[in-house]
Amino acid sequence: MTFLEFFDAMGEEGLANLVRGGSFDLVSAMGEKYEDLLRIYLYVGGMPEAVARYVGTSSLKEARAVQEHLIRDYEYDFSKHVASPIDTERIRETWRSVPTQIMLDTGLLGAALRLPEKVIIEGDTLFAHAKGAYAEQYVCQQLMAYGGSAPYYWSADGKKSKAEVDFLYDYSGTVIPVEVKAERNVSSTSLGNFAHNYGIKKDACDSRCWAIKTKGG
Length: 217
Prior knowledge:
By secondary structure, the protein is an alpha+beta fold. The chain folds into two domains: 3-114, no CATH class; 150-213, no CATH class. Helix content is 57%, strand content 13%.
């Protein structure tokens, strides 16, 4: 489930519709409420069973129990598809390495990494602990859900300067660069240089050239 679908499941359709309708002044004014729900979403994730358990119990521990059960089921399922116990264990080791490569639902990612509740829910601990990786994973999932395909990553390793942009995706034939920041300072030299070098103007992006702020709202 996407973040907005999570809103719907939580009975917060009004908040979801503000985003869908582009009422970003109101969204900004209610930033604390959105941030609180975002933290819960990052912990619970988008797996329907985990969401349903949380909605029904308001318990993060119950949602984590579902996540841990799903992870165990994935591991047990590997043996059904290979004959050799050695191959099964190799597949399991590959699966267990996935969290370090960030390829998971945010809820399952937290469960696989055994991140405690307070790291995700309380204050700015999450973003300091995960150094933005959690934020990048969240944004990547939302882009894939609404864009229909995985975004690209761009980097330049020149002799005089280095630069990188977290995500690039196509919007109606226009390349949109997206930079994710896990701090209050959302300025990005790399994003500015990319837009300048490739002739991408903010108005051409229809306000979709983002430096996404994930700390403090």
